[in-house]
Amino acid sequence: MLFHHMVVKDSVTLSSMISGLVRNGKPGYALKLFHRMVSNSSVLVTRSILLNVIMACAELGDWRQGKWVEKNHVLRNGSEFKRDPSVVTVLIYMYVKCGKLTSVNLLHGVAEVRGDVVAWNAMIKGCGELGQVEKAIGFAVEMQRVGIDPDAVTFLELLPMISLIPSLKKGMEAYAQIVKRGFQNNQTIANSLICMYGRCGSLGLSVDVFSGIIDKDAISWTSMMQVYAWNGLAAEVVKLFELMKKTAVQPNQYTFIAVLSACKNTGLVEDGMSLLKCMKEQYGLEPDIEHISCVVDMLCRTGRLTDAYHLIQNSHSEHAKNPVLWGTLLSGS
Predict the structure, then answer these.
(1) Any residues with CB less than 8 A from the CB of 293 and at least 6 apart, and which?
(2) 166-188 per-position pLDDT tens digit
(3) Where are the domains of the chain?
(4) Which fold has domain 243-333?
(5) How many Å apart are CA 264 and CA 106, to the nearest integer?
(6) Cβ proximity of 174 and 159 under 8 Å
(7) Cα–Cα distance between 230 and 223 in angstroms, integer?
(8) CA-CA distance, 197 to 165, in Å (whole number)?
(9) How far is CA 154 from the centre of its chain?
(10) 142-166 burial, b for 16+ CB within 10 Å, e for fewer?
């Protein structure tokens, strides 16, 4: 509303609006605004505008639009963006995400970018989002071969991909590189390692990483609970949650999903009901659809359909109208 009421819109105004549209999941509108801007105004295309427009093309998977932006605003005569590492990096990400690796290889030949770890990470991230895990790992190997050291972001991109394969061998190779680079004490990487080892079937290694984290945060605890749950050890999940409650770390929404799922799988109905209650009363967390659905399913499994029905009816008005909850109740019935 404010944007439409402004008589004069400068590059900062347009950059803010385009950025806001991209960040709020409306890349199509961002691209339309950009085309309107270059057609109907004298506002110059700034670096910020260009970065967000290329990202919009990536989100849309529209490499043709991205190619048009590159041709008309990056590669045009006199452009200051031809060798801007950030612009070239986001172009690389856009092309990779759109599956156009030929264009990526041409861009990646730019000397300034080839030596930039951020550009390599963009290629790795793009491959991961396309499900091309082996290619992403290949880029990680190649970047080291040409003398570029991976950073923490590189490993944070790779570990979830390895979880998808899953490959314990690749995971242990990644861990060896993490230790070599001195990132083993990085909490975010350690949390990701817990999940990666869990997905690769190594509960023992997950426990080792978890035990080695000195200052465990909510993600550390929740990740370990999820690994126990994946291995069917519901009692360990509940036990770990009780240990967590004795610390200063506050559980989050995902922690409760992990514990409620464990209660559901072991028939601990009363414990599950108590958890749902303490979420709001003790921790100030509003139960979401996933939490309520878990307890509804739990009640249905033990034949308590009436209790499940009342739980839905007494939920938040929006939740009470959600078809997922009613579907769970009907399925249980």
Answers:
(1) 324, 325, 328
(2) 999 999 999 999 999 999 999 99
(3) 1-60, 243-333
(4) 1.25.40
(5) 53
(6) yes
(7) 11
(8) 12
(9) 14
(10) ebeeeebebeebbbbbbbebbbeeb
